[in-house]
Amino acid sequence: MMLAATLVVMTESATPVHATDQAGFMGITVVKGTFGDIDVFNHIIPPDFWKAWHRSDVWMSWQKTKGDSDLYVQNNTWQPGGTTGWHSHPGHSLIIVTSGTLTNYESDDPQCQPHVYTAPATFVDAGGDHVHMVRNETNQVATGYAVQLIPAGATRRIDADSPPNCQW
């Protein structure tokens, strides 16, 4: 009973915020494949493992899933001024900027600072509840690829509201 009253009060006092649309942006699926369970762990362990964390030759990679996963390779193009709009993905994305310059904004950054990537460049979007927006703030076309691993059958892109700390 108390929970229901609390929810009503919260709903009535909420300020409506609208999802941001993508504009001047086109993403094309190059290929999609479905994998079963994944259990991969790669590593390089130097002779003195505990000191290895301070060395540049340490490399570790771990990907573990239970159940089917969809892997997407996306070819993305941003026109000058183009934007993906605020969104998230159910899994992480590995992004390669192949031409031009892209600016990534992350909703969990209190100052909403721009992170600028000029080709050739790479960055990672953590996915999950991590909301971000990628814009082309130049007068040249920008292109890139994204590789995404998500639960099979899940919606690949989830539109999100513009975060309060990133209002321009």
What does this structure look like?
It is built from one helix and twelve strands. Strands 1-4-11-6-9 form a five-stranded antiparallel sheet, with no helix packed on it. A three-stranded antiparallel sheet has the order 8-7-10, with no helix packed on it. The chain starts with a helix and ends in a 9-residue tail after the last strand. The protein has one domain (19-38, 68-166): Jelly Rolls, CATH 2.60.120. The protein is mainly beta. The chain has one helix spanning 2-13, and strands at 23-35, 38-44, 59-65, 69-83, 87-88, 93-99, 101-106, 115-118, 121-125, 132-135, 142-151, 158-159.
Helices and strands in order:
Layout: H1 2-13, E1 23-35, E2 38-44, E3 59-65, E4 69-83, E5 87-88, E6 93-99, E7 101-106, E8 115-118, E9 121-125, E10 132-135, E11 142-151, E12 158-159
CATH fold node name = Jelly Rolls
Q: How many β-strands, per DSSP?
A: 12
Largest sheet: 5 strands, antiparallel
User: Helix-strand pattern, N to C?
Assistant: HEEEEEEEEEEEE
The second-level CATH architecture is Sandwich
* Termini gap: 40 Å
Per the principal axes of the C-alpha atoms, what is the gross shape?
A: globular
Radius of gyration: 19 Å
- Category by helix and strand content: mainly beta
Helix percent reads: under 10%
Q: What's the number of structural domains?
A: 1
* CATH C-level category: Mainly Beta
Unreliable parts: 1-17
